[in-house]
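Minutes, project check-in
Item: structure for the 97-residue chain
Input as provided by the requester:
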Amino acid sequence: MLIAATIAIFVTMILAIIRGIAGPTLYDRILAVNMFGTKTVLLISLLGFVMGRPEFLDIAIVYALINFISVIGVLRYSDTHQFRHSSESANINEKEI
């Protein structure tokens, strides 16, 4: 049963990577990275349970906090004009030249 859970987590992690690469928008990619981080926390917790190492749960909690803070930081930074690269700004630059 635990092997099936581990395989399912790995499959969803692979799907998250694919979504992060193929995501049409920036927010799809950020969501995929967040999902990958969440599945990593689940995997660390599961491995800690299987190996009988309860200190892995502390590591998983710290990783979850880092994942949450980094996603919030990227979303804050993505609101600025510097981070956005759209076709509109490229068209404006071409018209100025």
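Outcome recorded: The CA atoms of residues 82 and 89 lie 11 Å apart.
No further action items on this chain.
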